[in-house]
Each structure stands twice: as structure tokens, then as C-alpha cells.
Design brief:
alpha+beta; 1 helix; elongated
Length: 136
Amino acid sequence: MKKSFNIVIAIGLVFSAGFACHQAMSAQPGKPLVLVDAPADRLKFEFDVVESFDAKYLGDTPGFTGRNGGLEGIRPSIALGDPVFRGNKQVGSVTTIVWERVRGSLTVEFDPIPPERIAVGETLWISLNTSKRDPE
């Protein structure tokens, strides 16, 4: 009886050790995301304007929020003040960027360049790589 109890304990320890090893290996960080080698058409991030607001903060100006996904495997390089385009024309400047890495999406808040009219539902774009931000 004591011998069979020891065997059961030994088998349990082996399975526990195997499970712990599997968990540790699956928690290893993945490869870092890089923009290098991304095709040229992936450098242009198109997004839909989803919100228009009239000054969120005291002394603020009207602005817009847009968002979209599709950034799986891409690490954006965007900074405040980067241009927002409609076609080849700059219509605004980035004021906030939120990168949701897990979802592969960006939320872009921007101020318009007067007198440009920007409507909710419109599709605009920004460059994902600030070294290639000139319109094509």
C-alpha cells in the first residue's frame, strides 16, 4: 500500500514538473515587432473619423478622433505633430496617439488645419514611419 502511494506521488510530481515547464516556455516573449521590411502600402495607415468634438479642455480647439486596426506585426513610429492627410493634402496634425498593440490598432486624435472641413465617417491617413511621412 505504501509503495503504490509513493508511485502515485511520483507520477503526480512528474506531471506537475512537465506542466510547469510548459507554462514557463509559453510565457517567453515573442520576437519584437519592427517596421523594417514592411511593404510600402503598409506604411500608409488609413483610419475612419469616428468622433468630432468642440474643445475637450479649457482653451482647447475643436478636434477629431479616428481609429482603425490591421497593424498585426507592425510597430508604428508616430509622434505628436505628424501630419494627417486626405489624399495628398495635409488636413490636420496629430495631437494624441494610442497604440493598442494586442489588438493591432491605433486611435488617432488630431486638430484640423482651418478651413478644412472634416466629417465623421471620412477616411484619412497618416504615415506609420515618420521618416517616410511625405505624401506619395
